[in-house]
From TrEMBL:
Pfam families, per database record: HATPase_c_3, HSP90
Record-linked NCBIfam families: PRK05218.1 (NF003555)
Name this polypeptide is given: Chaperone protein HtpG
Keyword Cytoplasm carried by entry: yes
Organism: Chitinophaga tropicalis
Length: 610
């Protein structure tokens, strides 16, 4: 029997490992099972090149729980180790940098990175164990070996008997970690980290993993059903995806994976953190914001890259040159895919636009190269003719003649609520204008971002002004009222006690509404963005609404009101017309709304006057 001390220069190494890794102590299972996978894969490689001539048999990894003896055992039938190799790989290599380790990481808590940097994966087992045993038999013709350590630098290594090739790691679980003696806890951890490992992993005689997941296969070998079934495997309770992108590149970095576009019915149903990062089929994390561009965090699926180390930390990812390349590549692939679908199946593209549009608009706001592609496949739905879509170029062709303003800019008219803004939509439609739907959470920000980039285009919401003023062409319509009548009408509207309201008389067409209330485009847009959490814009949300009240002097009702002999009744009629216009924009509330209802009842019940 060999006894000795692990080659460390301080006896504090194990307490430090325990302390550093405490916040993520379930990671020990991933590390030990990953080591078992490596041992199995190495044996396959040796067999393929003729260096191992024995029978491979069933290369599988088993995880066994013994509650009575408080042990957890991870076993493989891989390459195994000789006693000399145990001494080399367990006792020496892992702690060759112990002094550097202590100096560099003292006071830090990023345990995952420490493991990866120093090859300490096996030693993560001491986070949960008061004793660890290794029973191992090499694929070579050599006696089996047993190694034992109690979490101090002291170990013992001796010859033992073991029938089968491979390695058993036996963890004697300590009192603080008895959660790892619960079979449901172990199974959930195995399903999290080992779901797609390339070697079968069994727990309780049940294989938990799919060793050949869809992303490891060639796209040409997969059917639509294969992709959809894999999505179900990832997200059992989700609706089928709209479509997917298979990533498969090996230069200048290695990356595989499948990204799915989920169906999104409403903006608030968006779910992030649905992309999982793997390294050689070993689960790493589902926080991929440093690898996947932010706008694509709405996608679901898997990406796998051995060029990103198994134990990642945010600081490492931010400084890694491959991460930026991978992010750029994924963005390009998504842009190419959307462009391809738009060109080859426009009808299908339009049917999926409710979901696709969120990705497309978000991407166009945040990525210049994606925007260049997006300019071609961005589509806008006609609010008056559901199912009819315009590209930006098509909208220009249909609307330029009527919707070009005095600054030679094309005015894109849009609506956010077809029901609430119906009267404005109908008025604009009556002039031959094209109105598109912009009703998602990202549209306010999208419009603000695109206007400076599309310098020949201006967006105006259809209720931002009266229809005659939406396209500023400096054209004027004359009022049919005399100067005295206009003065009297201004006086009547001037008596309305309404803050932040600007009243203006205009000569509009006789069939336009008698009073039209609008909110200036800029301020309303800023308030809308502030309402959905626009950064640094919260003060806009608290500002009072600015209201423009346009009185249509050509509406015949004013001839009737101006001929009214009862001044009090005349004032009430004018006030009601103003309140109706405010009500149409949801700007009449509280006591003002109550007064309007009471006044309306009074006017309807009064004697009809000539």
């Amino acid at each position: 029997m060999q006894k000795g001390a692990i080659r460390v220069q301080t006896e504090n190494i194990f307490p430090i490992i325990k302390k550093f890794l405490y916040s993520d102590h379930e990671i020990f299972i991933r590390e030990l099972v990953s080591n078992a996978v490596d041992a199995s894969q190495k044996l396959k490689t040796l067999a393929s090149i003729g260096e191992f001539k024995g029978e491979l048999g069933a290369l599988e990894i088993t995880v066994k729980l013994d509650k009575e003896n408080k042990t957890l055992t991870i076993s493989d039938r891989g390459i195994g180790m000789t006693a000399e190799e145990v001494d080399k790989y367990i006792n020496q290599v892992a702690f060759s940098g112990a002094e550097e380790f202590l100096n560099k990481y003292k006071g830090q808590t990023d345990g995952a990175n420490i493991i990866g940097h120093f090859g300490l994966g096996f030693y993560s087992s001491f986070m949960v164990s008061n004793q660890v045993e290794i029973f191992t038999k090499s694929h070579k013709d050599a006696p089996a070996a047993r190694w034992e350590c109690d979490g101090s630098p002291e170990y013992q290594l001796e010859e033992t008997s073991k029938e089968d090739r491979g390695t058993d790691i036996v963890l004697h679980i300590n009192e603080e970690s008895e959660e790892f003696l619960d079979e449901h806890r172990i199974q959930s951890i195995l399903e999290k980290f080992c779901k797609f490992l390339p070697v079968p992993v069994k727990f309780g005689d049940k294989q938990l993993n799919n060793t050949n997941p869809a992303w490891t296969k060639k796209p040409a070998d997969l059917t639509t059903e294969d992709y959809q079934n894999f999505y179900k495997e990832l997200y059992p309770f989700s609706e089928p995806p709209l479509f997917w992108i298979h990533l498969n590149v090996d230069y200048p970095f290695n990356l595989t994976g499948i990204l799915y576009f989920p169906k999104i019915n409403k903006s608030f149903e968006i779910q992030k953190d649905k992309i999982s990062l793997y390294s050689n089929q070993v689960f790493v994390t589902d926080e991929v914001k440093d690898i996947v561009p932010e706008f694509l965090m709405l996608l679901h699926g898997v990406i796998d890259s051995p060029d990103i180390p198994l134990n990642v930390s945010r600081s490492y990812l931010q400084g890694d040159p491959n991460v930026k390349k991978i992010s750029t590549y994924i963005t390009k692939k998504v842009g190419d895919k959307l462009d391809e679908i738009f060109r080859n199946d426009r009808k299908g593209f339009e049917e999926k636009w409710e979901s696709i549009g969120l990705f497309a608009k978000y991407g166009m706001m945040t990525d210049d190269k994606f925007r260049e592609k997006g300019n071609k496949f961005l589509i806008m739905e006609d609010i008056t003719e559901p199912g009819k879509f315009f590209t930006l170029e098509e909208y220009k062709q249909e609307a330029t003649a009527l919707q070009t303003n005095k600054d030679n800019k094309l005015v894109v008219l849009y609506a956010t609520n077809a029901v609430q803004q119906d009267s404005y939509i109908q008025a604009a439609k009556g002039k031959g204008y094209k109105i598109v739907k912009m009703d998602t959470l990202v549209d306010a920000a999208f419009i603000n971002n695109m206007e400076p980039l599309w310098d020949s285009i201006q967006f105006i919401r259809v209720d931002a002004d009266i229809a005659d003023n939406l396209i500023d062409k400096e054209e004027k319509t004359e009022s049919v009222l005399t100067q005295d009548q206009e003065a009297k009408l201004k006086e009547l509207f001037g008596q309305i006690p309404q803050e932040h309201v600007k009243v203006e008389l205009k000569g509009l067409s006789a069939d336009s509404q008698p009073v039209i209330v609008t909110r200036p485009e800029f301020m309303r847009r800023m308030k809308d963005m502030a309402a959905v959490g626009g950064s640094g814009m919260s003060w806009y949300a608290n500002m009072p609404d600015e209201i423009n009240m346009t009185v249509n002097a050509n509406h015949p009702i004013y001839q009737q009101i101006l001929n009214e002999s009862d001044d009090d009744r005349r004032q009430k009629q004018v006030r009601n017309l103003a309140d109706l216009a405010l009500l149409s924009q949801n700007l009449l509330t509280g006591a003002d709304l109550t007064a309007f209802v009471n006044r309306s009842v009074e006017l309807m019940g009064g004697e009809k006057r000539n």
